[in-house]
Amino acid sequence: MGNRKERANKALILLGFVLLFIVSFFISIGNGAVKISPLEIVKAIFFQKDSMHYQVIWNVRLPRTIVAALVGVCLSLSGAILQGIMRNPLAGPNIIGVSSGGGLMALIILILFPKYYYLVPLGAFTGALMATLFIYGLSWKEGVHPTRLILAGVAVSSLLNAGINGLITFFPDRVAGVIGFMVGGLSATTWIQVRTIIPYALAGTALVQLLPQRLNVLMLGDEVATGLGLNVEKTRFAFIILSSLLAGSAVSVVGMLGFVGLIVPHMARLFIGSDYKYLFPAAFFLGGSIVMLCDTLSRVLFAPAEIPVGIIMSALGAPFFLYLLRKKEAVR
C-alpha cells in the first residue's frame, strides 16, 4: 500500500513537471520584443499563417524555444548521469571538464577554422568525449573510484579552461563573434541549430530512458553492483560516453552554459528522490523548463537589449543552489 502511494505521489510530481514544461514553452514563445498571448499563438500557428505573429513565432521564437528546451534536457540528463556514476551531487558537465572539452574543440573550429563551422557539433562531442576519456584514464588505478574521477575532472577542467583563455588571448580579433558562445547564448538561434542538436538529443535521451535500472544498481556501490551481476567498469564507461554525447550536443549550439547540469538533477532529486526511473524524466522536464524560462528572462529583463542566458543561469543558479544546500542541512 505504501509503495503504491509513493508511486502515485511521484507520478503527480512528474505530471507537475510536465505541466511546468508546457507552461514554460508558451511563456517563451509569447514573450520578447513583441508580446503574444497563448490564444494568439494558437491562432497564428494553425489559422493565421500569413500574419506578423506567425512570422515572429515560426522564424524567431519557435526555433529558439525548441533549442532552449533541448539544451536544458541534454545538460540536465548529462549531469544526472555524472552525479550517479560518481555518487556525488556536486558533479556536473561544467564542473568536471566535460563541457570545457566540448567548448574548447568547438572554439578551435570557430576561431581557427571558421569555414568548417558545420563541424562544430561533431567537434564538441569529440572534445567532450576526449576530455571524459582523459579524466577516466587519469583516475584509473585498479578500477575507477568516484572520488578520484571527480578530482581528476576538476583538474582537467582547469587545464581546458586555460586552453580556452589562450585562444582568446592569441586571437583577440576573432573573439567578438564567439562571445555569446563563451557565456552561453541563444540570441542567434535558427532552425539550423534545431536540426543540429535534435538527432543527438533524441538519441541521447532515448538511450537514457532505457538504462535507469543499471544506474540505480551502480549507485549502490561497486562491490554491491558487482555482486548483483553488473559489469561496473563497462557500465560506468558506457554512461560516461552517453553523458559526453548529451553535453557535447548542448555545447555545440549554446556554448558554455553552466549550472544546468549541476543544479537541475539536484533539484529534481529533492522533489522526487534518487530512483533514476523517476529522476531521469523529472530532470528531462525540469531542465527544459528552467532553460526556457531563463532564456525568456534574458530577452525581457533589459528589453529591447538581450543578455546571454548563461548570465541569467549563473546569477539565479548559484544563490538558489546555496539555498537548497542550506535547506537540506536544516532538514537534517
Q: What topology does this entry show?
A:
Elements: H1 2-30, H2 38-46, H3 52-85, H4 98-112, H5 120-138, H6 146-170, H7 179-183, H8 191-210, H9 212-218, H10 222-227, H11 232-254, H12 260-272, H13 276-300, H14 309-331
Structural write-up:
- Helix content is 76%, strand content 0%.
- The model has no long low-confidence stretch (mean pLDDT 84).
- The chain is built from 14 helices and no strands.
- Helix 4 (98-112) packs parallel to helix 6 (146-170), helix 12 packs across helix 13 (276-300) and helix 13 crosses helix 14.
- It has helices spanning 2-30, 38-46, 52-85, 98-112, 120-138, 146-170, 179-183, 191-210, 212-218, 222-227, 232-254, 260-272, 276-300, 309-331.
Notable traits:
mainly alpha; 332 residues; 14 helices
Q: Profile the largest sheet.
A: none
Low-confidence stretches: none
| Strand residue content | under 5%
Round the Cα radius of gyration to an integer and report it. Answer: 20 Å
Q: Can you give the helix content as a percent range?
A: over 70%
Spatial shape: globular
| Overall pLDDT | 84
Instruction: Report how far the terminal alpha carbons are from each other.
Output: 27 Å
Number of continuous helical runs: 14
Class per helix and strand makeup: mainly alpha
Number-wise, the strands total 0
| Multimer state | single chain
Order of helices and strands: HHHHHHHHHHHHHH
